[in-house]
Known about the structure:
- This protein starts with 6 loop residues before the first strand and ends in a 22-residue tail after the last helix.
- The chain is built from one helix and two strands, in the order ββα.
- It has one helix at 48-54, and strands at residues 7-10, 26-29.
- By secondary structure, it is largely without helices or strands.
- The chain is elongated and about 55 Å long.
- It comes from Paenibacillus aurantiacus.
- InterPro entries: Spore_coat_CotJA.
- This is Spore coat associated protein CotJA.
Amino acid sequence: xxxxxxxxxxxxxxxxxxxxxxxxxxxxxxxxxxxxxxxxxxxxxxxxxxxxxxxxxxxxxxxxxxxxxxxxxxxx
Length: 76
């Protein structure tokens, strides 16, 4: 497990009498700010137009969001 990988896996307990089909592996995201305890000087920065699209000025704090709901198109 590397520090740069933000997606982590968790293997929950699966009981023999669970009423629903078990989810063997669950995933969660660890935000990158957990690894930067203070803001170092002279961090590289995104250009302002790109920073507005990505939601952060600093590449070290960027965490992409990937939807698990499907294509992300309009809902009916």
